[in-house]
Amino acid sequence: MSAGSTADWIQDSRQRSAFRRRLLAWYGKNQRDLPWRRTADPYAVWLSEIMLQQTRVETARGYYERFLQRFPTVTDLAVADEADVLKLWEGLGYYSRARNLHRAAQTIVERHDGDLPDSYEGLIRLPGIGPYTAAALSSILFDRPHPALDGNVMRALSRLLRVEEDPRRASVRAEMVRAGEALMPRTGTGDLNQALIELGAKVCTPRQPGCGSCPVANWCRAYNELEDPSVLPVRVPRKKRPHLQVTAGIIRRRGKVLIAQRPAGGMLAGLWEFPGGKQEPGESLVECLRREIGEELGILIDVEEEVACVDHEFTHLSITLHAFSARYRSGRVRAIGCSAFEWIDTDRLQQFAIPRADHRVLEELAVAGTSLAALINRE
Ligand code: SF4
C-alpha cells in the first residue's frame, strides 16, 4: 500500500495505544461544539450524519435544527409527506438523501419498533446508509469497532501511513479499513472515529496540513519521511465533467405560471421546476425549449426573450440554465415527461420544493429589477 506496506507503528499495540491517547487528549480539548454532539438521541445523530454527507458543518447546522423542530422523532418523519420533507431540505442539495432518510424512517418504524438498528450490518441495510455512515453511527451510538473512513480520515490516514497509491482503489481502501480497524480501541470507538474526523477536518487539511501543531506528528510517516506531506493522498485526475446548455420556460396563462414535477428516480426526483430540458446538437435555445415543452407537457408555447441565465454545478455535470419568458399557445397539458404539473399563482411557488438552479433564476430576475409576478401578469 505505501512505499512498501502499512506503517510499522500500527502493528505495535503499545504504539497504537500511545497514538490513541494523544489523539483523544487533543480531541477532548479541541473538538467543536456542535448540536449533534450534545445529544444521545440516535435519530438526531443519524440525521446529522446524513446532512453532513455532502454539506458543510456551518450550512448543516441551521437545517438540522429546523428539521428536528418540524420532525422531532423518527415516527414524525415516517408519517410525513415526502413533499414536506423535500421542502424542508430545499437548498441543501443531493435530495436523494432526504428521500432515503424518509424511507429509512418508515422502515425503522415498521420493522424495528422505531429504534435504529444497533449494528453495522443492520444500519447498512437502510436506504441512504453506506459503509462510512454505518461505521460512524454504529461506533458513536453503540460503541461498535468500525472505522469511519470519510474523506478527511482517508486523507489523514494516507499521510500517517504514507499510502502512495490512490485510496479510491478498492484494494487500497480495503487495506486502509484494516488499518482503521487496528486503531479501534476496546471501548470509545465513536470518540476515536470523531477524533480522526476532526484531525482531518481541522489539522490535516488538503493543501496546507498543520503539521507543526499536529498532535500525532510523531507517528506520521509522510511528515517524518517526505519533504511535503500534502503530496498525499495520491490524486488521480478525474474525468472532466460534461457541461450542458439547458432551457427552462416561465410559461404563463391567465395570470398563472406552469410548473412541473421531475420524474421519480432521476436527478432531483420529485422537485418542482420551470419545465424545459437540454439542448440537442444543431438546435437553437428557443427550438430546444419549444421541443422540450412539447415532449414533456404536450403543449405549444410562444417563446419570448431570455430573462435569466445561470451556471450551476452538480456532482457529475455542470449546466448553463437559460430561462425564457413564454406564453401558452395551444394543446391540453399532460404529464408526459414529468410526474405532475400545476398552473399556480406566483405566490404559491414557495410551497413547492424547487431546485437550487431555479432559485437562482428567481434571484437573477430580482437583480434585474423584475419579478416572477411581473412576468406572469404581462400581456
Ligand atoms: S503530521 Fe501533518 S500530515 Fe501528518 S497527520 Fe499531522 S497534519 Fe497530517
Structure overview:
This protein has 379 residues and is an alpha+beta fold. It is 43% helix and 14% strand. It has 15 helices and seven strands. The protein has helices spanning 13-30, 42-52, 57-70, 74-78, 82-89, 96-111, 120-124, 131-142, 151-160, 170-183, 189-203, 221-225, 285-297, 356-367, 372-376; strands spanning 243-253, 256-261, 272-273, 276-278, 300-313, 318-330, 340-344. Strands 1, 2, 3, 4, 5, 6 and 7 form a seven-stranded mixed sheet that branches. A hairpin with a 4-residue loop joins strand 5 (300-313) and strand 6 (318-330). Helix 2 (42-52) crosses helix 3 (57-70). The N and C termini lie far apart (68 Å). The model is unreliable at 1-6 (pLDDT under 50). The site of iron/sulfur cluster has 15 residues, from helix 9 and helix 12.
Layout of secondary structure:
Elements: H1 13-30, H2 42-52, H3 57-70, H4 74-78, H5 82-89, H6 96-111, H7 120-124, H8 131-142, H9 151-160, H10 170-183, H11 189-203, H12 221-225, E1 243-253, E2 256-261, E3 272-273, E4 276-278, H13 285-297, E5 300-313, E6 318-330, E7 340-344, H14 356-367, H15 372-376
Bound molecules: iron/sulfur cluster.
